[in-house]
């Protein structure tokens, strides 16, 4: 599961200014697709529509053939995990932050959820290692470490579809590349949509979609796009 389609999707925040002007996308289940393009192109808007922060004003979005407007909000939010650019963490342990959202989780459940994410490869690389940091309070984490925790928090819910909305864009390119490499190593079988502004960090995506002024300007593999430009 996790086959996403956009069929002639239009969207406007204000009736007199269309932001998405007829988007067609077919993202096979399990594929990793990157959406790149200049600021203001509509990349975040695309992500917000999938999560139904807003509804399309024309066309439709389907997941596994079902219009997302016909899916309950809780089922939709169970299918899609979103990692935003700026994550706010609780001044608590890594374990608590990862299990956040699991209401009533016991400390043991929190530890095991965090361990699951660590096995997935996400926080092993934190300084001093996962085992010693998971229960520690008052953490001083760098931007990259925070985003690792944010991604782990989303992966713990095991959503079939993962959207990274510029989740690593604010980081230096080395840290960004490290995190993308971890993702590539673990994200087999999960539909992953990476919104990015640097083409260089999405080299391994199955397909890259270039969005410009609310339209798909081109799409292809990294190599195909380089050949064209
Ligand atoms: P990107 O992610 O590619 O930078 P966005 O999807 O954030 O682009 O924004 C696309 C356009 O929609 C921009 O012109 C932006 O100013 C506008 N926009 C974004 N959010 C809102 C909003 N809540 N209300 C009105 N306009 C918005
Ligand atoms: P991003 O591209 O990362 O989404 P933006 O700067 O476009 O960041 O948007 C930041 C916030 O401001 C978002 O919540 C967005 O919905 C809102 N926003 C952006 N542009 C507008 C706009 N023209 N009018 C109203 N809200 C906007």
How would you describe the overall organization of this protein?
It is a single chain. It is built from 8 helices and 10 strands. With about 230 residues, the protein is α/β, with parallel strands linked by helices. The strands form 2 sheets. A 6-stranded mixed beta sheet has the order 6-7-8-3-9-10, sandwiched between helices. It has a 4-stranded antiparallel beta sheet with strand order 2-1-4-5, with helices on one face. The model has no long low-confidence stretch (mean pLDDT about 85). The protein binds adenosine-5'-diphosphate (2 copies). One adenosine-5'-diphosphate binds near residues 44, 85 and 166. One adenosine-5'-diphosphate (ADP) binds near residues 19, 43 and 44. It is found in: Cell membrane.
Brief digest:
The protein has 229 residues and is of the alpha/beta class. It has helices at residues 43-50, 73-79, 94-99, 107-119, 129-133, 143-155, 173-186, 222-228; strands at residues 4-14, 17-27, 32-36, 58-63, 66-67, 80-83, 161-165, 191-195, 207-212, 215-220. The site of one adenosine-5'-diphosphate has 3 residues, from loops.
